[in-house]
Amino acid sequence: MFMHESWKPFLKSEFEKPYFKELSEFLHAEYDTKTIFPPKQLVFSAFATDLNEVKVVILGQDPYHTPGAAEGLAFSVPRSQPIPPSLINIYKEIDSDIGRHTNTSGSLRSWQKQGVLLLNTVLTVEAHKPKSHSGKGWEIFTTEVIKYLNDTRPHLVFILWGRDARNKKSLIDSNKHLILESPHPSPLSAHAGFFGNHHFSKTNEFLKSNNLKEIVW
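RESULT FIELD:
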């Protein structure tokens, strides 16, 4: 699995903690006996983003639970896969907010390359069983990731979609960073406040005001 060098001191310290050792034992057993997504080598794909280049953190729930979809980046799917309903709604919001989105598939790797950390609160899931790996230790890990980003990086935009992501709000210093939150883009909740949230234009306005390069959405 590829993780950028800049993350390694942080990740190494987390991997050695008792909660992560328990989580690792659970995951070994799960991968050995069940169908788990994403594939083992892609679980930490979000951390291929250089820590020193991170400008935006998009926090989701847990990976897609259908075959071939999860690739370790929140909301993103491989180019060969159909665009999932949540991502269709994300693209609709970009189109109404800033004009149009630039991606031609469901892959969000172009965002990742621009310093968008695409992180789920839980990094693995059993096939066809959403939230099946909740409460196993991933939430502790992603809490530590958010705290680390909050403490070590200036002027970040934290985009929190859905209840699980919004639960992390108290970890973020709003005097230092921009926090944007709304319901999840899932078809079940998008009409309750995701549509019309203008998170993409607000993100770019904040980046521009801090002399940072805007994201090409």
